[in-house]
Write a structure and sequence with these properties.
alpha+beta; Rossmann fold; Lipocalin; 2 domains; nine-stranded mixed β-sheet; five-stranded mixed β-sheet; 11 helices; about 25% helix; about 30% strand; disordered C terminus; Class_I_gatase-like; protease; serine protease; signal; Peptidase_S51
């Protein structure tokens, strides 16, 4: 009898143990799924230019250069236009002239409202050799309704796989995300951010791009969408501004701002993500030259720039206290700590943690955390007398993009 009781007790405990393992396993699987689901991934190859409306000269130049310059083969898809616009210029001569003026020689147009045509081999032929594609403004749901999950959609992805670039602004921006922000129209002709249809081309996964963002005071609309789609990364792009996506990073290009909705709050004043202010209804702005890591969902830093090795004696040249304000309320301190040159801010009795800085060239240093550049100055005797902190992307007249120095 005792043996039976012990056996039953053992089986009961074993069942509880197995249930616990199952619950923990399910939780881990769910956590991994949620982590993966909340990441936003850009194209492995190629580039995306996603504009808020209006194109600056800099944005045109970036698109033209990445398209291949004079050797580029451009395909323009104007399907987002309404019928009146297309009827006014049925052969797209006016639109073609705009691209000609920007230096493009080889330009083809692809337009249909018929999904069967969009799914045919004959229709997608221009995309087979294209190095660049431009998606026009208008209404993004027109583009989605026609091309989503067709051969056209597949060939667009292949343009990226070959290293080409896909660009667009306004409706041509929204369609590039996974969620088609403002893709539908309400009964009162009001285009809300929660759309129908909902699915975009998904060149950036788990993302929603809103356009004309600050110009039309849309900065709070994104919260309505994120309440029902919390896995999405919300990105608002203002007019005359764009994000250049390469891999899992993007850089802001243009005159105005890009608004980020990633559940945190960031300010360059703190040189870090301010987790104390993270949470509900928070967003922040990025400006021209700022970079963002889509996968990690955080502002990107200079961590990939290669530093120049300097000797310990050379390091000592830069050590010192440099007055920032005459009142001595605020000043900068350069120290050596653990064989690394570091920059430290001192304000009254508050001493901030030192930030490592690395030599880029003589008298020019950078840090990998705040993306600051330190330009040291010398007197007539060659002694270090101070430095200037800079955040812009031009170093010695060269434009620094994605941690590569190009003319």
């Amino acid at each position: 009898m005792n043996i039976w009781k012990l056996t039953l007790k053992y089986l009961k405990n074993l069942r509880i143990f197995l249930l616990l393992i199952l619950v923990i396993s399910c939780q881990n699987t769910e956590d991994k799924a949620n982590t993966s689901k909340s990441q936003s991934i850009g194209p492995k190859n190629g580039a995306l230019l996603i504009g808020g409306g209006g194109i600056t000269d800099e944005m045109w130049k970036v698109f033209y250069d990445l398209a291949g310059g004079k050797k580029s083969k451009l395909v323009v898809i104007p399907t987002a236009f309404d019928e009146n616009t297309i009827d006014y210029d049925p052969e797209f001569k006016i639109l073609k002239r705009q691209f000609k003026e920007r230096g493009f020689d080889s330009i083809q147009f692809m337009h249909t409202r018929d999904t069967l045509v969009a799914n045919s081999d004959a229709f997608v032929k221009p995309l087979k050799t294209a190095t660049a594609v431009w998606l026009t403004g208008g209404r993004s749901y027109r583009t989605s309704d026609t091309y989503l999950n067709t051969k056209t959609h597949k060939e667009l992805k292949k343009v990226l796989e070959r290293g080409g670039i896909i660009g667009g602004h306004s409706a041509g921006a929204s369609i590039q995300g996974s969620y088609l922000a403002r893709g539908g129209r309400g009964l009162e002709d009001n285009y809300k951010i929660i759309s129908n249809p909902e699915v975009g081309f998904g060149f950036v996964t788990n993302s929603a791009f809103d356009q004309h963002h600050l110009e039309r005071n849309r900065q709070y609309d994104m919260f309505d969408l994120l309440k029902i789609k919390p896995e999405l990364l919300g990105i608002g792009v203002d007019e005359n501004t764009a994000v250049l996506v390469q891999g899992n990073e993007f850089e802001v290009i243009g005159d105005k701002y890009v608004t980020i909705y990633d559940g945190t709050f960031w300010s360059n004043y703190f040189n870090e993500i301010d987790t104390l202010r993270s949470g509900k209804n928070k967003f922040y702005f990025l400006k021209n030259g700022d970079k963002y890591n889509l996968k990690e969902r955080r502002v990107q830093r200079n961590k990939f720039i290669k530093s120049k090795n300097i000797t310990s004696n050379e390091q000592k040249e830069y050590v010192g206290n440099y007055l920032f304000e005459k009142s001595k309320v605020f000043w900068n301190n350069i120290i050596i700590e653990n064989d690394t040159l570091k920059f430290q801010i001192v304000r009254r009795n508050i001493v901030r943690d030192p930030i490592p800085i690395y030599a880029y060239e003589k008298d020019l240093f950078f840090d990998t955390d705040a993306e600051l550049w330190f330009h040291f100055t010398r007197d007539s005797l060659g002694q270090i007398i101070g430095f200037e902190k800079r955040t812009h992307q031009f170093i010695d007249g060269l434009n620094q993009r994605f941690n590569k120095i190009t003319e």
